[in-house]
């Protein structure tokens, strides 16, 4: 099997990453392209795989909301989204037909959760939650390699949060205003504080407030799914030092009730796979298609 290559696509709202991945999960070829309109973006993905060595299967880790119901006529397509042009975009069918290979699709956070669980440090947790904090906030829970999914993938970025005393920022979610995403996504930090989060290095006040909102999500995850580990990724979420602040805030948030495992230093961590969790999760999904 060493010669079998698979394709991985991480479809993001601002850029797409594509990779050819070997059976030992080495990225042997890759490209990154801006997300423009669906026809151009997906055609560029097809071009990349046309130029590279042939892949035997394809895995897609997609931004959401995406239809993941195999019985739905819109399976593998982006659902209604404010993102211009992308509502109904048939990512899965367009790519699998163009490349003529078996293909699978998950959300970007599901794929990242699968990869962090399967490829992260030992001891490997059986139940892992992955949270991305960047332009938006998304989360997924994986149990023994399988994303937990209801009728639809979860939308844990939109849980309600308790406003921190003294914080009068109104929130920016177009649907809920001051939900978690509305209060704690990267653009909310930028708007509230008037500073790009990437430039907010020494500002403990900013990161303490951020951690106190994100700890409310860890509380929901802990009381809903009781994961062994919660991984924070994304441009804001993977910021060095933030995981430790979230872990401390989570202990306060849980108030000593049913906080099994949260004292573990590894309970809240940055991604072990850096920026590659989603892409490697897509590669694992592609491999699983070969085994079907
Ligand atoms: Zn919301």
Poorly predicted sequence stretches spanning 5 or more consecutive residues: none
* Mean pLDDT across all amino acids: 95
Helix fraction by DSSP (H/I, runs of at least 4): 25-40%
Shape: globular
Cα-atom radius of gyration: 19 Å
Number of helices: 9
N-end to C-end Cα span: 15 Å
Largest sheet: 5 strands, mixed
Q: Give the DSSP E fraction (strand runs of 2 or more residues).
A: 15-25%
Strand order of the largest sheet: 3-2-1-4-5
What's the number of extended β-strand segments? 10
Write down the secondary-structure element order: EEEHEHEHEEEHHHEHHEH
Bound molecules: zinc ion
- SSE class: alpha/beta
Task: Write up this protein.
- There is one protein chain.
- The protein is of the alpha/beta class and 292 residues long.
- The protein has helices at residues 38-51, 91-99, 108-119, 180-184, 186-193, 204-225, 234-237, 242-254, 277-291; strands at 6-11, 15-21, 27-34, 58-62, 103-107, 127-133, 137-143, 146-147, 229-233, 268-269.
- Strand 7 (137-143) and strand 8 (146-147) form a beta hairpin.
- The mean pLDDT is 95.
- The site of zinc ion has 7 residues, from helix 4.
